[in-house]
């Protein structure tokens, strides 16, 4: 809805201290007029939508904990599954399975909802219906999806919505980051308007699950990837809450771009899925929009960023493995009630979307899985998009802060349209490589091989020594990150390639790139790919020199080398023309060592080899 200046003034005057309060149904009990952080957040925009009819009275028999407690709280882990266990006991349509345990020993539960009451992946596959996987709480303070999913399951069992399962299945993970969920206080997520207590952004190991898809370091992510491989969903929804600027949209969502690895999936999402979802949200009183990332949070007129996510993120990973993946980003400055209801509408309409258009959806998935593009883009450059954005923003002013000395934004709560804002996106192909027929990984790189297996990438092993003509990358000028990131020391290097004839040992792993996850394998194994296992530091031992030669040995060795090879003398004389080299005794001796048969011929060479 649009907010007039008079209504905004009335809102601001609603409390004696000048703070905005949430406009709610007077019949609904409220824990407080404001959240603890309301006094430091921009004004609340009053909202009422048709989706409020989805709510049950707090004293209704099957009211969720969210509905029982004033629409401002979200239940703990134990409270969540105590309520869900009671619901599951009422219906043969619902089953509960654990996809694995967290580092602190909690089960990561998944609710399986199907008309047939399938208890495992094989039974679910037999019903032939498309499957939606919904994941809440990957950042456990951003928990809207949990409470929305609980309401939706309740309504399937008791309130006439079992028909949603006539032509679709639902897999629902209420809490993904279960340990972070229990690190809950009212002082988490300072930029977010509720719930009262919120979980922590990272896991108990302080790792961010939505930076872990490619490297898959955490037990939680490994469990989720195995679940995806086992249950084979057709659509994957990852529910978040934003940070950042103020605007009118309450539910924003996005997915891979047309330029990525899954263009057919993009076309289905953009031309079939998005129109139906935005229509459903709008009919229920919500304001849907694309993902919002301002180029400059202090100057909206500079435009918006169109995000081309890499495989460390859920939506980028979905693009790489050809799994249609929706990233929901509910607006953090909208009250918890509004966000939960918007999520409910989106989940319900997503089930309808895959049921109504399953043939085209599954056809798009198959086209992308078996496209096998001969050239694969590893990285992207930014460029301005042809289409601008009429952005539904909020008015603001800039004030100089006496505290920081910077200009800071003061949002005024008044809707303002910013017409035809420029949009800058990573859509210009940067580094491209040809598709090799296969990769070969020596058996000693066990962590890498196991991680690829967790992703579900198919591989075989050589059962005898095999001689092949292959390509090998050579690195130079390695550059290590100056600080740890997500538990890893990232690295980049200059890359060159050479053809070699090599005998591969028994046990070498062969990964064919003409398989459904072949594009994912390429993005994980090509060292110039930003989310390659190389750049995540899995191969950092190759940068360690472990054998040396003493000066007393290299001196006579160098003299003998020069005597035996006149061309080497010419090359050395040329090198001496560099004054810096000529003045460095260690560099001069190293020059000979590197050209001797004693030098480590594996130093700075990538152990993963490319077939032709």
TrEMBL record:
This is Peptidase M14 carboxypeptidase A. Residues 73-354 form the Peptidase M14 domain. The active site is at 329 (proton donor/acceptor). Keywords: Carboxypeptidase, Hydrolase, Protease, Signal. Its cofactor is Zn(2+). One of its GO terms (biological process) is proteolysis. Residues 1-20 form the signal peptide. One of its GO terms (molecular function) is metallocarboxypeptidase activity. CDD domains: M14-like (cd06241). It comes from Shewanella pealeana (strain ATCC 700345 / ANG-SQ1). Belongs to the peptidase M14 family. PROSITE patterns: PEPTIDASE_M14. The keyword Hydrolase applies. GO terms for cellular component: extracellular space.
């Amino acid at each position: 809805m649009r907010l007039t200046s008079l209504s905004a003034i009335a809102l601001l005057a609603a409390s004696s201290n000048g703070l905005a309060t949430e406009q709610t149904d007077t019949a609904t009990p409220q824990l407080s007029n404001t959240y603890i952080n309301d006094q430091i957040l921009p004004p609340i925009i009053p909202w009422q939508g048709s989706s409020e009819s989805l709510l049950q009275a707090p004293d209704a028999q099957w009211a969720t904990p969210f509905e029982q407690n004033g629409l401002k709280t979200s239940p703990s882990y134990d409270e969540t599954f105590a309520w869900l266990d009671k619901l599951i006991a009422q219906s043969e349509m619902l089953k509960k399975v654990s996809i694995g345990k967290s580092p602190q020993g909690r089960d990561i539960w998944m609710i399986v909802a199907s008309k047939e009451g399938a208890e495992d992946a094989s039974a679910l596959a037999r019903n032939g219906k498309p499957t939606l996987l919904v994941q809440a709480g990957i950042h456990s303070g951003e928990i809207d999806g949990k409470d929305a999913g609980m309401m939706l399951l309740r309504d399937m069992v008791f309130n006439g919505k079992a028909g949603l399962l006539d032509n679709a299945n639902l897999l629902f993970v209420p809490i993904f980051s279960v340990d972070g969920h229990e690190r809950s206080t009212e002082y988490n997520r300072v930029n977010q308007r509720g719930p009262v207590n919120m979980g922590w952004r990272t896991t108990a190991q302080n790792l961010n699950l939505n930076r872990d898809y490619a490297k898959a370091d955490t037990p939680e992510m490994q469990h989720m990837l195995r679940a995806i491989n086992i249950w084979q969903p057709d659509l994957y929804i990852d529910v978040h809450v934003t940070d950042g600027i103020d605007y009118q949209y309450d539910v924003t969502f996005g997915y891979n771009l047309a330029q990525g690895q899954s263009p057919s999936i993009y076309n289905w999402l953009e031309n079939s899925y998005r129109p139906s979802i935005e229509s459903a949200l709008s009919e229920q009183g919500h304001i849907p929009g694309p993902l919002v990332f301002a180029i400059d949070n202090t100057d909206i007129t500079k435009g918006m960023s169109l995000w081309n996510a890499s495989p460390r993120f859920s939506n980028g990973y979905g693009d790489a493995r050809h799994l249609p993946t929706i990233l929901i980003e509910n607006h953090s400055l909208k009250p918890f009630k509004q966000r939960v209801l918007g999520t409910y509408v989106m989940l319900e309409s997503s089930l309808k979307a895959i049921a109504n258009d399953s043939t085209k959806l599954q056809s798009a998935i198959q086209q992308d899985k078996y496209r096998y593009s001969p050239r694969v883009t590893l990285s992207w450059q930014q460029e301005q998009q042809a289409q601008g954005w009429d952005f539904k923003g909020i008015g603001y002013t800039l004030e100089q802060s006496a505290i920081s000395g910077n200009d800071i934004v003061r949002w005024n709560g008044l809707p303002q349209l910013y017409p035809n804002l420029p949009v800058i996106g990573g859509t210009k192909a940067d580094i491209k490589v040809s598709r090799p027929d296969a990769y070969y990984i020596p058996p000693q790189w066990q962590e890498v091989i196991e991680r690829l297996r967790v992703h579900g990438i198919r591989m075989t092993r050589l059962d005898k020594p095999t001689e092949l003509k292959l390509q090998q990358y050579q690195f130079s000028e390695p550059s290590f990150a100056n600080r740890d990131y997500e538990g890893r020391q990232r690295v980049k290097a200059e890359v060159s390639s050479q053809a070699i004839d090599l005998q591969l040992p028994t046990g070498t792993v062969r990964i064919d790139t003409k398989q459904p996850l072949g594009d994912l394998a390429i993005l994980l194994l090509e060292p110039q790919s930003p989310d390659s296992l190389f750049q995540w530091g899995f191969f950092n031992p190759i940068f360690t020199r472990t054998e040396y030669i003493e000066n007393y040995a290299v001196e006579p060795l160098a003299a003998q080398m020069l005597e035996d090879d006149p061309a080497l003398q010419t090359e050395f004389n040329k090198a001496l023309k560099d004054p810096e080299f000529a003045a460095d005794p260690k560099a001069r001796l190293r020059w000979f060592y590197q050209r001797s048969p004693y030098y480590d011929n594996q130093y700075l060479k990538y152990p993963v080899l490319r077939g032709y």
